[in-house]
Amino acid sequence: MDTGDTAWMLASTALVLLMTPGLAFFYGGMVRSKSVLNMMMMSLSAMGLVGILWALYGYSMAFGNDVGGGLLGNPFEAWGLKGLFVGSYTGDAISYPLSGTIPALVFVGFQATFAIITVALISGAVADRMKFSAWLVFAGIWATVVYFPVAHWVFAFSSDATGVVGGWIANDLAAIDFAGGTAVHINSGAAALALCLVIGKRRGWPREAMRPHNLPFVMLGSGLLWFGWFGFNAGSALGANGIAGFAMINTIVATCAAMLGWLVTEKIRDGHPTSLGAASGIVAGLVGITPSCSSISPMGAILLGVITGVLCALAVGLKFRFGYDDSLDVVGVHLVGGLTGTILVGFLADPGSPAGVAGLFYGGGVDQLWRQIVGAAAVLIYSFVLSYIIALVVKAIMGLRVDDEQESNGVDEAEHAETAYDFSTLRSISGGGTPRPDAATAKAAAHVPAHASKEG
């Protein structure tokens, strides 16, 4: 075990976990005020649900020894994380399981945070209208039959030393996806498209303006995502080393370039660069550099960032052209951004980078390009088809969306019996003095949950 590597991976795990609350702020600010709590709850609930599934069997399905064709790890090999924590933790000699130079349990925790945020990303496509119970059922099934197998395809590398056989994209196809352009972003973006097609459009969309209710929330969320993304990308080096540093600088410059690319596109198209555009450009850049941060040069990362920012800014308008209501542009940012970053590896891969692969622009021909396209297409098709089927099944059994009246009044009240903002009026006691609540407010206060503050 290397203590420096372990310390960095512990920090990276915390950074990536912070991304999900950051996503909650990012998505929560983009919806209307009557839906903000539900939107944030969909992200936070993914932490609770997927974290448990990961410990039970998800890690084993993703990183267990392959059970056939590079498609799936053995779900029973490390069921309940058995075998990953047995050993002595008190002696000088290391006698507990390691993953490379870090404790196996640290790697388990790091990868759990990837599974969590991938599921949470999907929720932005169905803002304002999905039942919370249906979301939890969909999320649990989707994680099991889509994310865990795809994570095995992309992240599970074979090892001759241990005899472990991994996934087909990582080993047989040899497509480059350093931190999850396929497994995380194309995967969640394709699922988001399928789910929003099955659930249908919001009432009034696109005739009614459905503007973000809190742009400072959106900007705060994008900042937290950028901060956490250093754990996402640099942490994927699995050590405190030069590859982590390489991934870090590419994550910085590509994101900066994507934000500027999005803002310039807005200025030319709409006449105004917006705060929402800046925040969205940041996320688009982070998505685009995720698969490629170990394989392209910093100058290549800047070019990739600009291309990703411009393409995603244009892609968010496709929903109006084709009529699918992707509420918060998961398809336009994560699917398009993930495809862009993954495929551009085939053009921009620099043989001087840690990946050591030459793309088309560096004399490598189309060898790496076709691998990138096949890997991206396989994940897109698999995720879309399975997600569509899961959504149809959940819809048939329990329904996916709230009824029209609940949607009109807001899913916060319908699903959670709460509102994000308390606008109740206070009446002053006659002649001045301490304000007191009116009768309706007093009646509601009698039912405040025990864990709520007195002021709430």
Automatic annotation (TrEMBL):
Entry keyword Electron transport: no
PROSITE patterns in the cross-refs: AMMONIUM_TRANSP (PS01219)
Positions of the Ammonium transporter AmtB-like domain: 7-421
Classification via Pfam families: Ammonium_transp
UniProt keyword Protein transport, yes or no: no
Region of interest: Disordered: 426-456
Keywords noted in UniProt: Ammonia transport, Membrane, Transmembrane, Transmembrane helix, Transport
Biased composition range(s): Low complexity: 439-456
UniProt cross-references to Gene3D superfamilies, sorted A to Z: Ammonium transporter AmtB like domains
Membrane topology category: Multi-pass membrane protein
Domain of life: Bacteria
Localization annotation: Cell membrane; Membrane
Transmembrane regions: 6-27, 39-57, 102-122, 134-155, 175-200, 212-231, 243-264, 276-293, 299-318, 330-349, 369-394
Family: Belongs to the ammonia transporter channel (TC 1.A.11.2) family.
PANTHER family the record matches: AMMONIUM TRANSPORTER MEP2
Name of the protein in its database record: Ammonium transporter
Source species: Pseudonocardia charpentierae
Taxonomy of the source species: Bacteria, Bacillati, Actinomycetota, Actinomycetes, Pseudonocardiales
